[in-house]
Amino acid sequence: MKTGFIGMGNLGKAMAGRLIEQGFELVVWNRTLEKCEGLGAEIAESPAAVISAADVTVLNLFDTAAVLDVLWMENGLLSADIEGKLIIDTTTNHFGDVFQLYDEVESMGGMYLEAPVLGSTVPAAKGLLVVLASGSAKALEKARPVLDAVGRKTCWLEKEGAASKVKVINNMLLGVFCASIAEAAALGEKAGINKAELLDILAEGAGKSLVMDAKKDKIINGDFSAQFSGACIFKDMGYLQSLAHELRTPLYTGSLVKELFGEMFRKGIADEDFSAVYKIFSGE
Which residues participate directly in catalysis (predicted)? Predict the structure, then answer.
């Protein structure tokens, strides 16, 4: 049976490639159809054509606005008969707006699973993502083959909206760790310490982390090809601020680091990997 996949950004394409590698027959769509080429998947002409051909469709889009557009655009997902079909949404959505997605899909007879993921392109290509899943148990059961193919673990957070909240809280740590590593590297360089040697040492000490493992070589080599862009982390940190606002609680490190990633737009590097925040500290 075919599986649908919509969204061929860096992460989406890595996930789609993993599914194909695991034997899934994919039918795919992206707003820029050229990004679908090279996968060896069937390319559909519209979101409606994808969900018409597939019992399960995966979304991996930039934000909630993009998901709503794919649902309601001309020949969008909800223009097709989705009775009994499942949409697995791996987009990092706004925790409040995600309820609208549940309502709109379920009102048309479909099932919606909120399933943002932890990890970027490298773990996605290896099936090592961590999936955060919220929604009905029935939707989760139907989604299991796909989730097990792209992820090493699925964390079940049944309450609607919970997965989206956990995702942005996780990304606060991701952003804070990366910014701290980048600032440490730039400070060490200014102090006359070799950047590669410094990061190797920090990776054995207080800097030891998955973020250091993932981003150390990018900072050392100046290779900021995007695995997870500055624009994406900035968007997620904005969602985090919205969560803190709703909870009427201050957000200290998260708010500061969000503004650092905002500087990437002013420098014209927001489409680069978020580890390019290093350039702000180094003065490049």
Answer: 167
